[in-house]
Amino acid sequence: MTKEKSENVPKMTLLGYYETLPEASYPKTDFVNKVAKEIGVSTATVHNWIHGKTKPMNHEHILKLCSITGLKENELWKK
Fold first, then answer.
1. Nearest to 35 by CA among 6, 78, 76
2. Is the pTM of the predicted complex or chain greater than 0.85?
């Protein structure tokens, strides 16, 4: 690259470098956030459902979980 061309190229900053990095992917966190957003509950509630500490009281929430996961109602939790 000639000196003339290199003077017109903006220099990379630390922020610029950071912003060019790909977004990290955390599938489990992404799943919890998706469920919480789509059903309208907190992420803590979703974690409680996942770990069987509580189950949705609203049957519509169960149906939405089935839709999101592809699981049947009787497959969501161990009996």
1. 76
2. no
